[in-house]
Amino acid sequence: MDKLLIEGGVPLAGEIAISGAKNAALPLLCAALLTREPVTFTNVPKLNDVGTMLKLLAQMGVKVAREADSVTLEASGLDNPVAPYELVKTMRASILVLGPLVARCGEAKVSLPGGCAIGARPVDQHIKGLTEMGAAVAVEHGYVHARTTRLKGARLFTDMVTVTGTENLMMAACLADGETVIENAAREPEVVDLANCLVAMGARVSGAGSDVIRIQGVASLHGTTHRIMPDRIETGTYLCAAAVTGGNIRLTGTSASYLDAVIDKLMDAGCEVIQERSAISLKAPPRLTAVSLRTSPYPAFPTDMQAQFMALNAVADGTAVIRETIFENRYMHAVELIRLGADIRIDGNTAVVRGVAKLDGATVMATDLRASASLVIAGLVAQGETLIERIYHLDRGYENLGQKLGALGARVRRVK
Ligand code: UD1
């Protein structure tokens, strides 16, 4: 299994391009299930999660053609609306095929994703919504089995804000009979990107980006070409990496408009951030100031940036209080950061991080995608060598991480 060896202490400097967003790409690829016509996506990131999704779609009978950063999907021969456990267990976002499959085929059999490192992550809201739209849903032998003749428009209210839940129900509603209203909808930019693509495919969706989304069902959708939005979490991760190393970087092909809460905290920490139309530059101060934060659904501070900010606070001046309100078990990076010399105390969903003057390199273990990113950030500022094990998590969500960090001057190497 590959590991990542980082020799810390180099301030990041230079310019790199940000890739297409993983969390936009995954639902968008599933949207191609809604039509017989080809749908082409550009700016598709080369990530293991994207590869898993394409494999999942291919075994359902979808034709997949991939060239450079574009993917064309044609679901005219869709004949097997099943998502098997072997694929779903490696990627929870596989549940995103459920809504489109029921809407298009009148049937879907999707393995329950099960728990994952950051918490239980049930899919009850996805099931509740489809049931309210008239599907008969049974959970049997570890699979969600949904059947219907045609979904019916309905007024849906999710008990909590769920991103993939909103996306699944929005896609399902596009081919339903009548109007669907999703209340308490997720407002994430990736939901908006998906809605824009659906509209380009002929769907009648309005309100995406607010907490009430309205969808007038249509009989069929058609093909389109859609450019995937930039990855705001990849953007935020490199900004944090530059901030902790006292660096000065420019990220192109991205936009600060999706990152207000994160940029606000970086500025509170003492960084100078310059926003252009499709680029962001960051210049770090000699020492960062600790910043407290609380994760919440968009537009508040994203849970997917919590781990990276814990690494940042580990070496900042002062004490930060972090509250994680989305996932119950998302502090597994803390014990690894402590192995590098960080002073972190966890009490329930609260972490108290007292900044230390320096971290020392050590061998650490990546436990999930964003936890891994926080260990990379810590390794970049730690003195000496940090060896990160199990970096397959990083390959799921960061395109060419080693090369991009290398281009910014970091001393990073993949080792067997
Ligand atoms: C998405 C993102 C993930 C991010 C998360 C929160 C994708 C592919 N993944 O995950 O990177 O960390 O949003 O911003 O976009 N919940 C339920 N029942 C449900 C659905 C959710 O109880 O049916 C709970 C979850 O356990 C969690 C909270 O709701 O506590 C939010 O989860 P949700 O927004 O659904 O996360 P994902 O869509 O899986």
Task: Explain what this protein looks like in three dimensions.
The protein is α/β, with parallel strands linked by helices and 416 residues long. 31% of the residues lie in helices and 25% in strands. It has helices at residues 22-31, 48-58, 85-88, 98-105, 124-132, 163-174, 189-200, 232-244, 260-268, 306-314, 332-339, 369-381, 392-397, 401-407, and strands at 3-7, 13-17, 39-42, 63-67, 70-74, 82-83, 107-111, 136-140, 143-147, 155-157, 179-183, 204-206, 212-216, 225-227, 248-252, 272-275, 279-283, 293-294, 319-323, 343-347, 350-354, 363-365, 385-389, 411-415. The strands form six sheets. It has a four-stranded mixed sheet, with helices on one face. Strands 2-15-17-16 form a four-stranded mixed sheet, with helices on one face. α10 (306-314) links the parallel β18 (293-294) and β19 (319-323). α1 packs parallel to α7, α4 (98-105) packs parallel to α6 (163-174) and α10 runs parallel beside α12 (369-381). The model has no long low-confidence stretch (mean pLDDT 96). The structure holds uridine-diphosphate-N-acetylglucosamine (UD1). Uridine-diphosphate-N-acetylglucosamine is lined by residues 23, 26, 92-93, 119, 121-126, 160, 162-165, 190, 303-304, 326-327.
Number of strands: 24
Strand order of the largest sheet: 22-23-1-24
Low-confidence stretches: none
Radius of gyration: 21 Å
Characterize the overall form: elongated
> What structural category characterises the helix and strand content?
alpha/beta
Q: Helical proportion?
A: 25-40%
Spatial separation of the terminal alpha carbons: 6 Å
How many helical elements? Answer: 14
Q: What portion of the residues fall into strands of 2 or more residues?
A: 25-35%
Mean pLDDT: 96
Bound molecules: uridine-diphosphate-N-acetylglucosamine
Instruction: Summarize the biggest pleated sheet.
Output: 4 strands, mixed
